[in-house]
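Deliverable D2.4 — example input (structure tokens):
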């Protein structure tokens, strides 16, 4: 028994010891796991903080480095808050925009907006950055729509700084759209909101105001603002500082201080290259070329334009067309049509590669392309380019007029709606008073028998209510009269604007006709001086005459004239049925108030022939000697 008892005790001790060892081992393993997890988490947090610091230091000065840091940071997005992820995508979009990778930038901004769904202020700021990127591509209308979304969010949050920032960015768009007055209005709104603020963004708004004054031709005031802001921006030599230098240099060029402008442009070009903003570095070279061109130094300007053109071509920049237009102008001045033709062909090929093109820049490009075609005696190509230029100019003028009409219509609708609201409010007050009257009458019916004194009092009160009701009706009538008056004023303004458009169309028709006639006369002059015995010259003459027959510019003139005066021909024939088709065409030119010389240029006849045609037309119309032919046609 004692031996068995000792054996059992020994076994129990062994088992207890094993359990304790196993428990200690588990505790040790768990402790190691916890330590490793905390170490890993700390290392990850430290890595994220390092990346965020690197992004902050390089975002606006070294976009390639910033982009690499942001992409590394986004690898941890599953463990990051939504706000941090949204901010990272916004910063990625900014870096891609600086590198002129606009499609990538827009995709990054869209991801940032999605991540910032629960953070309205951050979402609005991402919309602003996206609007800036769209503006850099030349897509101003889309940029304004995105900025409107940012404005709605900031307005709902009553965020004064956010609203002022959006006004500033909208003003930049209007600057690029050559709507200086609208830009200045938006910037003044922004500055009014920030007049008591010490936020650094106030300086950005002032910078945009300086840009607006520059575009509006107020160079001295713009120069003062730039000189006030540049020392502040120089503390951090980022994109904003160098962009301001470029605009300051433009201002100095307009003031003919070329020496100062040259040194500033050289600094800007060098600085932009150092912070890897190659697109604007090339653009700075363009402005330097423009400076030399203004001084007549075309040989010095040519290599700068060539470098800028080639650089922006590789960047697929939205500013390529503007630079190409200026490059062509220098080549035309130096009479180098061979290189000019090569540039024209390259630009035509690049149009199909999704490069954003500003319509005004394209019109300027076509203007200089026509000079190159004429120097190469490529008259048919010159005619086609001239036709394209006129179409673009026509569409730009129409867009500008449509915008003005839209503004007037919106003002009219807003004013009309406000007046309707006032009338509705007055009607509601009248209805409320009517209800009050009914309640008073009901009370009188209940207390009439025993409360004679109270009845008198209520009767008096009822008379007062009637008087007030009458006053409100009069006020409502006056409001309606005022509404009708303002409506008449707005309709008058619309009619005046439409009259301006008609006058502008007449000027366009005249300009187009004279331009085409002048070009045809030039070509006919060249043909007239050619050697008759030369078979090649005769063949060229036949081809050009065939081109004239194929391109019926008179039909284009008639279409444009009918747009401006649709019923002129009908009314004239009704009054004078003996007129033929040629008479109607001749009367159309008189209707435009053209001189005899201008009519002769368009029809290709002499001044005396025009006078003879007018004399025959007077006979056909049977006009008395004391009645002016021009006066009769203008009255139709």
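Example output (designed residues):
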């Amino acid at each position: 028994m004692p031996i068995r008892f000792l054996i059992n005790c020994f076994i129990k001790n062994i088992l207890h010891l094993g359990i304790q060892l196993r428990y200690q081992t588990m505790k040790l393993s768990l402790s190691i796991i916890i330590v490793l997890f905390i170490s890993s988490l700390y290392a990850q947090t430290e890595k994220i903080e390092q990346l965020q610091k690197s992004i902050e230091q390089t975002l606006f000065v070294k976009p390639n480095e910033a982009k690499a840091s942001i992409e590394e940071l986004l690898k941890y997005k599953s463990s990051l808050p939504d706000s941090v992820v949204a901010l990272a995508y916004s910063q990625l979009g900014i870096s891609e925009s600086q590198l002129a990778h606009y499609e990538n930038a827009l995709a990054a901004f869209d991801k940032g907006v999605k991540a910032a769904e629960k953070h309205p202020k951050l979402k609005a700021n991402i919309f602003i950055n996206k609007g800036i990127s769209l503006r850099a591509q030349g897509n101003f209308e889309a940029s304004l729509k995105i900025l409107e979304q940012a404005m709605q969010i900031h307005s709902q949050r009553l965020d004064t700084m956010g609203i002022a920032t959006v006004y500033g960015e909208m003003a930049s768009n209007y600057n690029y759209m050559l709507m200086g007055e609208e830009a200045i209005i938006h910037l003044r709104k922004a500055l009014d909101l920030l007049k008591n603020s010490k936020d650094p963004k106030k300086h950005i708004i002032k910078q945009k105001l300086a840009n607006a004054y520059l575009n509006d031709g107020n160079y001295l005031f713009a120069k003062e603002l730039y000189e006030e802001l540049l020392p502040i921006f120089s503390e951090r030599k980022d994109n904003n500082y160098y962009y301001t230098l470029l605009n300051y240099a433009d201002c100095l060029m307009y003031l003919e201080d070329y020496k100062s402008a040259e040194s500033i442009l050289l600094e800007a070009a060098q600085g932009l290259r150092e912070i890897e903003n190659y697109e604007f570095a090339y653009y700075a070279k363009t402005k330097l070329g423009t400076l030399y061109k203004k001084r007549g130094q075309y040989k010095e300007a040519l290599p700068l334009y060539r470098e800028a053109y080639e650089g922006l071509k590789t960047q697929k920049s939205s500013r390529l067309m503007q630079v190409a237009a200026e490059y062509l102008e220098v080549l035309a001045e130096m009479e180098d049509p061979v290189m000019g033709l090569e540039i024209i062909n390259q630009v035509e090929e690049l149009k199909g590669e999704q490069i954003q093109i500003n319509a005004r820049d394209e019109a300027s490009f076509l203007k200089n392309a026509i000079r190159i075609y004429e120097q190469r005696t490529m008259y048919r190509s010159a005619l086609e380019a001239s036709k394209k230029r006129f179409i673009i100019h026509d569409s730009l003028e129409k867009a500008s007029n449509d915008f003005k009409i839209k503004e007037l219509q919106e003002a009219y609708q807003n004013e009309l709606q406000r007046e309707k609201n006032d009338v509705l409010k007055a009607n509601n007050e009248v209805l409320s008073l009517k209800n009050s009257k009914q309640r008073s009458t009901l009370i009188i019916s209940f207390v009439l028998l025993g409360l004679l004194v109270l009845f008198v009092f209520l009767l008096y009160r009822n008379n007062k209510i009637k008087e007030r009701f009458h006053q409100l009706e009069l006020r409502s009538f006056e409001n309606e009269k005022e509404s009708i008056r303002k409506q008449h004023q707005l309709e008058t303004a619309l009619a005046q604007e439409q009259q301006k458009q008609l006058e502008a169309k007449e000027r366009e028709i005249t300009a187009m006709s004279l331009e085409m006639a002048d070009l045809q006369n030039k070509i006919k002059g060249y043909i007239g001086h050619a050697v008759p015995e030369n078979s090649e010259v005769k063949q060229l003459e036949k081809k050009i005459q065939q081109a004239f027959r194929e391109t019926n510019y008179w039909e284009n003139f008639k279409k444009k004239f009918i747009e401006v005066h649709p019923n002129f021909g009908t009314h004239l024939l009704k009054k004078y049925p003996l007129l033929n088709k040629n008479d109607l065409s001749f009367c159309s030119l008189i209707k435009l108030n053209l001189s005899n010389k201008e009519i002769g240029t368009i029809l290709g006849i002499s001044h005396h022939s025009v006078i003879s045609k007018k004399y025959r037309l007077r006979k056909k119309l049977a006009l008395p000697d004391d009645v002016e032919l021009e006066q009769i046609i203008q009255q139709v």
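Confidence is low (pLDDT under 50) at residues 401-414.
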